[in-house]
């Protein structure tokens, strides 16, 4: 713990700049958010990737989105086994406690996690098959998606697997009883998107994922 | 999967606004990010809470921060047991593949997850003790932190536990061999912060967490 | 060469201070920058003037901006004549080797170079017309800009010429085939700014320089 | 000129942050700098490289350093031929108009320009020998330095050439009559430094460049 260091100065300067502008101009809103707690209207599950910030592309204000970010925006299947499941905990909190109205899974192009999964499943990344590979074991969630893309022409497999990362996650979401119940009662809707980083486009799943349409 | 719905219109409209402005003005940068891949300088671990967006408070551009967000910004201890560990996968990818220079844990005030942990540990939330409670099992990570705060005056316990969420996570980070190795070789530094949502302030851990100082 | 002297002590002291703080806290980042090379997202062309440091006003970290500074932030026209062109070399390196996404020309108020150019062009500085005046010959680049301002009311001519220094430079930038190609392919965007030193304001060119708008 | 675009939003936000903090806290100083003009105590010639910002390593305030930055921090020999010499113009202005007390040439390790010069001079970069290569022609300034290093063991040549970039520049500076005169009259001193990016160290030339000593 002697390893904890002070923040780099440029981040300190930028924080002071934020405080003197965005915070000062909105301190009433921030104080109200602190006192009343959050009431976000949506949960977003997106990738840790530094090129995908959903607050930017959706112009989200503080307080709007409850955001869980993990490698490749994946949701594991429901498994109430008493172990630690960070993604499942975030979903449980969003649905049962915050009662969000939308649950949006946002995938993206050029995803390093998906590319790693493709390499692993096609036999080109034995190191990811090791029991000790956290990334490999995490990407196991996407293995069922690889089955849907492995017979496509080679250049189409990874883009298709990026969409599978969204579809597999939505399918797994529906294995959580409280998610299914919220969806079926009409209290929450599910949405699946893939963001194209280079072209700045967004496609969404329609017909249960059989079609992807640009928004 | 018939449950997937189109995105609400206000989000579509905002996305089109983003595309016509931020994307158009920076398309060269986005294309380069897509072609060359990401080279973020820091990984940030923060809470899913909708009131804490680190890209805002640090004026971060697309491509700067690799961000993992989970309930209460927690890191579990190193456990290469072959199970799915989303947080550990994100850390492994950031440290070993992206080789980030900074790993920053950002806690915050008014954290619902920390409050739940406090209620659970002090015997006021039996439902969180259930084996099937994902939030409860996730918050087990912070139990050792409760031991450090339980004898404080009542009003100080929760703020102290919010700081413990950062310190326990940093302590757990150092149980990952690749994190320890990167820190000890000087290739990565660790930082611990707590963001005060209502007051717009930021404190950072010094002296291994014995002191917290406003930046 | 016997004239080379040790650094003044106050600069040595400050350097040691920087090393013990900023460097120590960020040594991981500096080492990575040394090992992997620079990947700046933008080139900035600004004036040598001691009152204009773009890293400050834009909170830029080490590694973000590739910065060329000369008198009056000028770019000469494309001239592949085999002579030494320091500005053209910097632009060539930024665009062709570093592939920056943004090229930003930053002018400023109270510019001594621009004032000298105005004096020269209006017949009040014959010494700058001498063949041996390096400043005079350098400011020749801005002569076409004087034509656009010479009929304005006297008090408006120098501020207008400061903006012309940015516009003439951008016009000249577009005479470089590799700049034009990067801009037309959408791989790089051009930006023109004037920084008001005394008032701390920033205006940017819009509509190809017909309007200047405060950011 | 229709190609000029608005500044990316993250830079606008950071500028507003700077304005609300650094500028507001120092507006009296900025206004005085605008009204009285600059009186920098030193001119610094350094590289455009995004990893070398001398205002950072020397904790320089606005108004302290008049900074010229070009590829590889080079000064060409005195050549009053009526052509455009941006570096010579900056030196003339600093010495004759601003009358700086120090002229400091700051080289650095891992310099892309120096590496290119080494490749060119050792016959490994024919493209840099082209008449139309601005970088190649600019690096011609450093050719005499290559003669001093070409017989060293291979691994020592580039670091030695980085130091030669400083020494050749200082030698060329002394071919400018007004520089020589200011130095010989004791009104200005010359300094030569090389900054080690990865290790955060600074060495300075002593004994006319025969020795380099850590400051």
UniProtKB/TrEMBL annotation, chains A, B, C, D:
Its cofactor is Zn(2+). The keyword Metal-binding applies. Signal peptide: none annotated. Binds 1 zinc ion per subunit. It catalyses: hydrogencarbonate + H(+) = CO2 + H2O. Zn(2+) binds at residues 47, 49, 108, 111. It comes from the Bacteria. Keywords: Lyase, Metal-binding, Zinc. Its EC number is 4.2.1.1. Gene3D superfamilies: Carbonic anhydrase. InterPro entries: Beta_CA_cladeB (IPR045066), Carbonic_anhydrase (IPR001765), Carbonic_anhydrase_CS (IPR015892), Carbonic_anhydrase_sf (IPR036874). One of its GO terms (biological process) is carbon utilization. Belongs to the beta-class carbonic anhydrase family. Pfam families: Pro_CA (PF00484). This is Carbonic anhydrase. It is an enzyme of class 4 (lyase). One of its GO terms (molecular function) is zinc ion binding. Reversible hydration of carbon dioxide.
């Amino acid at each position: 713990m002697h390893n904890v260091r002070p923040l780099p100065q440029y981040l300190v300067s930028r924080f002071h700049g934020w405080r003197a502008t965005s915070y000062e101009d909105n301190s009433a809103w921030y104080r109200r958010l602190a006192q009343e707690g959050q009431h976000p209207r949506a949960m977003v599950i997106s990738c840790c990737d530094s090129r995908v910030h959903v607050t930017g592309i959706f112009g989200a204000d503080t307080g709007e989105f409850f955001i869980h970010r993990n490698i490749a925006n994946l949701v594991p299947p429901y498994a109430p086994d008493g172990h630690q499941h960070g993604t499942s905990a975030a979903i449980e909190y969003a649905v049962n406690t915050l009662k969000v109205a939308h649950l949006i899974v946002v995938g993206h192009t050029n995803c390093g996690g998906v590319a790693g999964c493709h390499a692993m499943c096609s036999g080109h990344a034995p190191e990811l098959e090791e029991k000790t590979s956290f990334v490999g074991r995490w990407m196991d969630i996407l293995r069922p998606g690889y089955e849907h893309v492995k017979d496509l022409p080679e250049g189409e497999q990874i883009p298709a697997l990026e969409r599978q990362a969204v579809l597999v996650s939505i399918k797994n979401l529906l294995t959580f009883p409280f998610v299914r119940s919220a969806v079926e009662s009409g209290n929450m809707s599910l949405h699946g998107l893939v963001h194209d980083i280079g072209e700045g486009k967004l496609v969404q799943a329609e017909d249960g994922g059989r079609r992807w349409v640009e928004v």
